[in-house]
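STRUCTURE:
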């Protein structure tokens, strides 16, 4: 760890954060370590612990520098997905190893690096502009993004709103770049709906099908009704909505029994033509056309949203172009993120490192990219607080 007077080295801080095995919902010391680094930059840090009944408690951090002016909030998560079989990794996934200019480890891309970059960027910005830059910079860091996201960003936002603390704009540091740093910003996300479908029938002997009613056949017809035609053709800013069957389960141990129930789970990623409710109606309408009894349980984990182009996405694009020479695409593809909660409070855009290896074995980022991302975030701060 750097001495008190030394500036934050974003690659070193990333490696330090990777060494805390903060697999959701465990924090393992990651947030306290980050808070310590932020306090040295001048942030006031608040640890916020939340635990909905029936869930494991989660540690979150809200750090703020400055008391007045517009509050620009950087949002991210220190929790990571499990490494899987560590033997498949070329290094210990929690060692924070650097080899040939590449940092390998769980959370290297998604997204401990972006948090370290933002901390370093703020330090550089404040060093050049002085602490009286006419605004406030905050970090909202959660330990509950990768799993259920109940005790994380959503709760912190509610807590801040309740005490009258306003966010004016936000950047989420998810690894949105596709192939090269700076090629993509996300300005919205598709919604996500999970369906658990059980088709019912009457059990019987396969030799006497007229005395039975095959639930497996019914389920196949129902899944066909859901997948036969495209849901839509997409919209101005979104890809077409898409339904994928994830699993089909009957668990029938005998070849001569007609099953009386058959279950499938599917996931729909839907665009801004739909809400979770209208998407559910679309599904039920198609199932109702198939004869027979079924049960459908729906869980909507996020609605689709789009943040119209504006100051945040424009200034972020300018900062990216200045550092990398690339003009980022403004995309709404991919999975959901905590931006879905933040967009209810203020304009938000997501931008971070190349996410190709996120959640994979040997998750990695380039040290050069970590430095470049720090420059992008600090030039964004310059643009956002220019002349204030
Ligand atoms: Zn992430």
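SEQUENCE:
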């Amino acid at each position: 760890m750097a001495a008190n007077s030394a500036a934050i080295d974003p690659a070193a801080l990333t490696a330090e954060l990777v060494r805390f095995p903060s697999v959701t919902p465990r924090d393992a010391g990651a947030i306290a370590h980050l808070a310590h680094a932020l306090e040295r930059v001048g942030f006031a840090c608040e640890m916020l612990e939340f635990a909905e009944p029936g869930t494991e408690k989660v540690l979150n951090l809200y750090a703020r520098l400055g008391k007045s002016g517009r509050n620009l909030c950087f949002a991210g998560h220190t929790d990571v997905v499990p490494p899987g079989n560590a033997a498949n990794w070329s290094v210990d996934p929690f060692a924070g190893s650097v080899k040939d200019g590449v940092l390998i480890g769980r959370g290297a891309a998604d997204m401990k690096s972006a948090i370290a970059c933002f901390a370093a960027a703020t330090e550089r910005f404040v060093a050049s502009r002085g602490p009286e830059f006419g605004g406030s910079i905050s970090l909202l860091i959660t330990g509950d993004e990768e799993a259920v996201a109940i005790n994380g960003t959503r709760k912190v936002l509610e807590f801040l709103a309740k005490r009258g603390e306003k966010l004016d704009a936000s950047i989420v540091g998810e690894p949105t770049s596709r192939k090269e740093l700076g090629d993509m910003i996300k300005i919205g996300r598709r919604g996500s709906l999970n369906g658990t479908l059980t088709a019912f029938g009457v059990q019987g002997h396969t030799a006497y099908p007229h005395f039975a009613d095959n639930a497996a056949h019914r389920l196949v017809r129902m899944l066909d009704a859901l997948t036969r035609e495209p849901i839509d053709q997409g919209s101005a800013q979104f890809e077409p909505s898409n339904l994928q069957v994830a699993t089909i389960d009957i668990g029938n141990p005998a070849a001569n029994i007609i099953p009386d129930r058959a279950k499938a789970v599917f996931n729909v990623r839907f665009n801004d033509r739909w809400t979770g409710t209208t998407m559910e109606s679309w599904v039920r309408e198609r199932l109702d056309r198939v004869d027979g009894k079924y049960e459908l349980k729906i869980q909507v984990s996020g609605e689709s949203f789009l943040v119209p182009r504006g100051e945040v996405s424009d200034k972020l694009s300018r900062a990216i172009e200045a550092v990398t020479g690339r003009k980022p695409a403004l995309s709404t593809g991919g999975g959901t993120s905590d931006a879905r909660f933040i967009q209810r409070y203020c304009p938000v855009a997501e931008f971070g490192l190349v996410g190709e290896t996120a959640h994979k074995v040997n998750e990695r980022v380039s040290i050069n990219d970590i430095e470049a991302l720090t420059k992008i975030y600090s030039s964004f701060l310059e643009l956002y607080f220019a002349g204030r």
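REMARK: The chain has two domains: 10-189+304-384, 191-302.
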